Amino acid sequence: MAYWWVSQNQTHKQERDGGYLWAPKSGANGVVFHHWSNMTLVRPGDVIFSYAKQSIGAIGVASTAAYDAPQPDEFDNAWHGDGRKVDVVYRAINPEVRLDTFVDDLIPLLPERNSPITSQKKGVQGYLFAIPPKAGQLICDGLDFASPVEQLVADTLMQTVPDETTRDALVKARIGQGRWRHDLMRHWAGKCAVTGLEVEALLRASHIKPWRDSDNRERLDVLNGFMLGPAYDAAFDAGLISFEDNGTIVVSPKLPANQLLAAGISNTAKLSTLIDAHRGYLAHHRGSVFTPA
């Protein structure tokens, strides 16, 4: 998932209460600012830190991409009226987290250019800033919030994305990029659980018991997942392969033997290690996801 820092000093109440981000497309004389055009890069499931008055007072999850929208009436024509809007589900942070309580740890993780924080440890003038995953995770770890951020992301997508296929794909993508992926990478020593592939950019965090079938504990259980290379991840998710309790691969008849090589799947593949918790989740996968015929 992507992380965004939005500086909402003048409009934080309106935007939090109204459930949105809004920025003009351009300023005076048609000047375009990156901190406004960043709106076009926001995607459903992205995490947004709402900053105002030197504190983070809310965390949000985008439920839409940006779309054209006029300036909200409650802004009293403070900017050019032609703009973009992103729908956001906000959760208040109580008490608010002051910037000075974590800024020393945050600054080394921020980009040198287009950072939301100055070298003097203050917020910069601007609206929406992309921040790296490690910076986003640092902020999340410091927030006094009841639910893990991954749970907030998933809940938002479950409530706001009507199409089940699209929703499941978004949840898989977003949760596979956050803290759960980080923990899963560590559990599997940065390798594919089947092939030993160690190229992080190619590895996918794959739930064994799918998100839609899991309860809140199971969804973020590091033992309910494998790190898999792209081919094995896609086949496992589609139910074209599964694994026995001893780790050996099971191949569905819907993945013909003459297609295995082209698919990048070996019929002698085996998981590198398994414990009983994995086996419990695998039983569900074989019974409810795998297609035996």
Summarize the structure.
This protein has helices at 12-18, 34-37, 103-106, 133-142, 149-160, 164-175, 179-187, 216-219, 230-237, 260-263, 276-288; strands at 3-7, 20-24, 47-52, 55-62, 67-70, 82-98, 128-131, 204-207, 225-228, 241-243, 249-251. By secondary structure, it is an alpha+beta fold.
Keyword list:
alpha+beta; single chain; 293 residues; seven-stranded mixed beta sheet; elongated; two-stranded antiparallel sheet
Structural summary, described in words:
The chain contains 11 helices and 11 strands. The chain is an alpha+beta fold and 293 residues long. Strands 1, 2, 3, 4, 5, 6 and 7 form a 7-stranded mixed beta sheet that branches. A two-stranded antiparallel ribbon has the order 8-9. α5 (149-160) packs antiparallel against α6. The longest helix has 13 residues, at 276-288. The protein is elongated, with a radius of gyration of 22 Å.
Question: Low-confidence segments, ≥5 residues, pLDDT <50?
Answer: none
User: Helical element count?
Assistant: 11
Distance between the termini: 35 Å
Strand tally, please?
11
Alpha-beta content class: alpha+beta
Strand % is: 15-25%
Percent helix, as a range, is: 25-40%
Biggest sheet: strands, sense, closure? 7 strands, mixed
Rg from C-alpha positions?
A: 22 Å
Mean pLDDT: 88
